[in-house]
Design a protein that fits this description.
This protein is α/β, with parallel strands linked by helices. The chain has three domains: 93 residues, no CATH class; 170 residues, Winged helix-like DNA-binding domain superfamily/Winged helix DNA-binding domain (Arc Repressor Mutant, subunit A), CATH 1.10.10; 107 residues, 3-Layer(aba) Sandwich (Trna Endonuclease, Chain: A, domain 1), CATH 3.40.1350. It contains 19 helices and nine strands. The strands form three sheets. It has a five-stranded mixed sheet, sandwiched between helices. Strands 1-2 form a two-stranded parallel sheet. A hairpin with a 4-residue loop joins β6 and β7. α6 packs across α13. The longest helix has 20 residues.
């Protein structure tokens, strides 16, 4: 800092903070402490030291203190923390969406871009592990199916860092990854009482590992389900957790070819729904969509006639205009045909109460049949969106 005679050595943290506080009385000073939880673990009194300095000296000065950390549970600075109530703002940095994730490695194909997002969830640290000069197959084998790799260890390390009972949370996450989505089913698979399991699930939700979902537009519904929100956790518990012994013995390449690659389209199913939802959210309020929607998400309910479950991948509603956008998102290797449109229009009848206009969107990994394309040319309420369109900037 110009005009400041910096001291080369400070005996302790209070003396360093006192020095900065003195400087901050005459000029703006920005102090950034990265990975603050690590500092707090090595210097137990640091939070109390900062509290005293803030209360007695920094409030009157011009020092801007920024604390950064990757441990979400620690950085919440709850009421037990000496720093509770002293922050002026808190920012939770969100992951990149699928479009921003694709800009890291432009050479990747569209399907590889989708898979990159499907595994990393847009977390920069995870994206950085991938090598753009290699195929996604090579990257997955080297970066995830190798027991010495960073991403292989990451889910386990995060559970140990954030939680006191990682084995219990591991059982819950495994149950969800294997297909259980309702509280009763998850509790049964994890060997827990539903009331106890609900508490653990809430912790996982706060950490961004699990999300609780209601039918779109009905947030008060009791028909809630639980899904894995963290993409890396989803991939790890879907494909890796049950095959640790094969990976440790160097069978990662065989595991990919026999068990992972044939199931990637199925794995990418809900990821593709999320990509399509992000696409619609990005366009919401623009001339590229027929109306401004106020809620969007998956919808499910019961067919009273056939007594079976009805699901729609995406439903976007506008309560004011009584308009609804319904969408089907298919991550398949073949083009979508008229049967998919008919199925979607039939299912939309369950949402007709009070609706004045429906708009139908079909999202497809592999394009559309000639008949469906011709239908879309004649129908102003039908929109077809392929993978290339999803990655085009508007």
């Amino acid at each position: 800092m110009p005009g400041v005679n910096a001291k080369p050595v400070f005996e302790n943290f209070p003396s360093a903070l006192d020095y900065l506080a003195e400087i901050a009385t005459t000029q703006r000073v920005i102090l950034v402490i990265d990975e603050y939880p690590y500092l707090a673990s090595s210097e137990n009194a640091i939070s109390s030291i900062l509290q005293t300095c803030i209360d007695q000296k920094l409030k009157q000065g011009r020092l801007f203190l920024i604390l950064c950390g990757s441990s979400m549970s620690f950085m919440e600075l709850g009421y037990q923390s000496p720093l509770y109530g002293r922050r002026t703002a808190q920012i939770k940095l969100q992951a990149f969406d699928y479009l921003d994730t694709s800009r890291f490695y432009p050479p990747f194909s569209l399907t590889d871009q989708a898979l990159l997002y499907g595994i990393t969830g847009g977390i920069p640290q995870y994206i950085d592990q991938f090598d753009p000069t290699k195929s996604m197959k090579e990257n997955v084998i080297e970066k995830l199916l190798d027991d010495t790799s960073y991403l292989f260890e990451e889910p386990g390390n995060l559970l140990k860092q954030e939680l006191r009972e990682p084995q219990v949370y591991n059982a819950i996450i495994t149950a969800i990854a294997k297909g259980s989505s309702r509280l009763n089913d998850i509790s049964l698979k994890a060997g827990l009482m539903t009331s106890t399991c609900s508490i653990y699930l809430q912790t996982l939700i706060s950490l961004g590992i699990v999300r609780k979902e209601h039918p779109a537009g009905d947030e008060k519904s009791r028909k809630s389900i639980y899904l894995l929100e963290d993409h890396l956790f989803y991939f790890w518990y879907r494909f890796i957790s049950s095959h640790i012994s094969n990976i440790v013995t160097g069978k990662g390449s065989m595991l990919y070819e026999l068990l992972i690659e044939p199931r990637l389209n199925d794995y990418m199913g809900w990821i593709f729904e999320k990509i399509c939802q992000e696409y619609l959210l990005r366009l919401n309020g623009s001339e590229h969509l027929p109306f401004f929607f106020t809620s969007i998400g998956r919808w499910w309910g019961t067919n009273p006639e056939k007594k079976c479950q009805v699901e729609m991948d995406l439903v976007a509603k506008s309560r004011e205009e009584h308009k609804i956008l319904v969408a089907e998102c298919k991550y398949r290797n073949e083009p979508l045909g008229m049967a998919v449109l008919k199925e979607l229009t039939d299912k939309s009848h369950f949402l007709r109460h009070g609706v004045t206009q429906f708009y139908y969107f079909l999202f497809s990994k592999s394009g559309f049949s000639f008949e469906l394309i011709e239908q879309a040319k004649e129908d102003p309420f039908l929109r077809l969106v392929d993978l290339a369109m999803l990655y085009a900037t508007v």
